[in-house]
Amino acid sequence: MTIKGVLFDFSGTLFRVEPVHDWLSAVLDASGTTLPDAELTRCARELEESGALPGGANPLKLPDHLADLWAVRDRSSELHRETYTGLARQVELPDPRLYDLLYDRHMTPAAWRPYPDTKRVLGGLRQRGIKIGVVSNIGWDLRPVFRAHGMDDFVDAYVLSFEHEVQKPDERLFRAACEELGQDPGEVLMVGDDRRADGGAAALGCAVHFVDHLPVDERPQALLPVLALAGDGR
């Protein structure tokens, strides 16, 4: 199989969102809100357990009134915000403004770190003439994250669920990505961390390669095999 295009998931594949404690601390500092250390620790723990940080852990227990929203959360920016602020509101915070401020924070480039090998792999694929796309279940425009980290020039196409109103594993999202790259699905590799969502590309005929959704410091080289899988692009 000759690989002429590679599609990447975003969160947990190329980039990782900041830890919940850092996320909450940044918002508290920006809003001028202070919490005792014990209270900060409690809030961070409960926010993580609730799954309130997009790109972080899934909810330990999904509230019944949010179950339907959770299933379609990535189909629009409105649904995405409503879902995650709803999860955050399961946690008692000192100021009601914080729920929207937390959501806003996670959309900033400062909240995201690339994995150590991301730039090397994207650059290596670009040098070989292989087309690159980012296919993400998401409710906001992630392009500024790539620009801020100096990686936007590597990406030929961004195919985001909220812009297409379709979520992975629906093959229509992968089909749109292959079309934007101008490549046949049989010559495209999909790289992601979610076996169900990203594995949906296989139904279209794409090859699929998985990485583990780990903290940045614990996954220094998981993307490097993509260079070998893609070969020389011819």
From TrEMBL:
SUPFAM superfamilies: HAD-like. Gene3D superfamilies: HAD superfamily/HAD-like. The keyword Nuclease does not apply. It comes from Streptomyces mauvecolor. Transmembrane segments: none annotated. The lineage of its organism: Bacteria, Bacillati, Actinomycetota, Actinomycetes, Kitasatosporales. The keyword Manganese does not apply. This is HAD family hydrolase. Pfam families: Hydrolase. Coiled coil: none annotated. Keywords: Hydrolase. One of its GO terms (molecular function) is hydrolase activity.
